[in-house]
Amino acid sequence: MPPVFSLDSLSWEFQTGYILLSFGGATSLFNTPELIEKLCNAFITYCSVFWVWGYKMKVITINKQDWARGLERAYDSYRLFGPVKQDEFHNFRELVKGELPDLKLLNTRLSAKSMVYPQSEKLFEFTLDENREDHHILKEIHKDYSPRAVIGIRPCDAKAFLLVKANFDTPEYKDPYWIQSYEATTFVGYACNTPCRTCFCTTAGCGPFSEQGLDLLLVDAEDHYFLKIITQKGEKFFNAAGWSSTGDSDAASHKIETMRQAAEENITAGISTDKLKDKETTELFEAPFWEQVTFACINCGTCTYVCPTCWCFDIQDETLGFSGIRLRNWDSCMYPLFTLHGSGHNPRNTKMKRVRQRFMHKLKYYVDKYGNGIQCVGCGRCIRYCPVNIDIRKICDLMNSYEALPLDS
């Protein structure tokens, strides 16, 4: 049996400056950042293909009629969410029993992040009625953390949860609402046979058949589906759906690999990120291209709302009569009020400063703080829906290739 890979132990050994690796009695010492990074990436790939946390993956073939019947059975154990067409766009919402997710789509307009992190979330309730003993006392609002499954999430959106997890689930700070919702959710991915023309996921640490963050991966093979069971959580959902394990798993795996290669070849757009980590933060911050980059921006915030990795929020109290609630709402660094101080001072009082903050956070601050790549999965939504055609791919390449002039020039 291959060794079970531990991210926690790897992270600790990485910080000590070396990795000691043993295979078959042979021991090797890796003591340079370059070798360590290459080793980590290779080992993670190895684990994602063959073993995930000690769980051996398998692939089954499901007739599309059996797929629908299985989802019907899953309703008995799970709340199901999936993409549904609303007017001309698809978005995720909870499905009612008997309703199937609409998988005839390229991607949803909004990402699946609201399945774990709602756009507006009630946290507490209170009363201002001083005739009641519990006046002015915050009382936590009960939430439903029963098992749920998100059906048809694209691999890029699933990978995004892993990036966002770095903010909401840390050793120092843990967001109980995000964590409990995330842990209650099973992610059934839907591979991208035909990626969107604005996708650049293969150069953003992801891919159209990526399994990162997924419990199962569904692949459309015309008259049937291939279903890859990735985790034990995924197998639990598979058992609840009651699908029978049919077909040659090895042959299905080979077909999936062929489809993956074809899908990746269809992605022609890309970004370069190899130099971002080595760039001086202050040099990028003061680069002369920001004024030109931000000229067309209207600070509408669309890019932040459609983005699966944006996590900014605001806390508000709202009252009606004597009753009140405390809400957490998505917010956006594109808005002037986002950084407005009570004193009236605003450290990002111009459009240029706000746009610069968005891209510096995605492509530099996150890279430096977490060391796991950029805060972007290449879904391309911000490119598709920006009303003034600002393109993160071009800005990333500007930042990656920027060389500051010498001080004496």
Report the helical percentage.
25-40%
C-alpha end-to-end distance: 60 Å
Strand order of the largest sheet: 5-13-12-11-10-6-7
Helices, by number, come to 13
Overall body shape: globular
pLDDT < 50 stretches: 1-38, 40-55
Taking the sheet with the most strands, its summary is: 7 strands, mixed
Secondary-structure element series: HEEHEEEHEEEEEHHEEEHHHHHEEHHH
- Tally of extended strands? 15
Compute the number of structural domains: 3
Q: Structural class, judged by helices and strands? A: alpha+beta
Radius of gyration: 23 Å
Mean pLDDT: 88
Q: State which percent range the strand residues make up.
A: 15-25%
Structure, described:
It is a single chain. The chain has 409 residues and is α+β, with helices and mostly antiparallel strands. It folds into three domains: 46 residues, no CATH class; 181 residues, no CATH class; 100 residues, no CATH class. It has 13 helices and 15 strands. Strands 5-13-12-11-10-6-7 form a seven-stranded mixed sheet, with helices on both faces. The protein has a four-stranded antiparallel sheet with strand order 9-8-15-14, with no helix packed on it. Strand 3 and strand 4 form a beta hairpin. The N terminus is likely disordered.
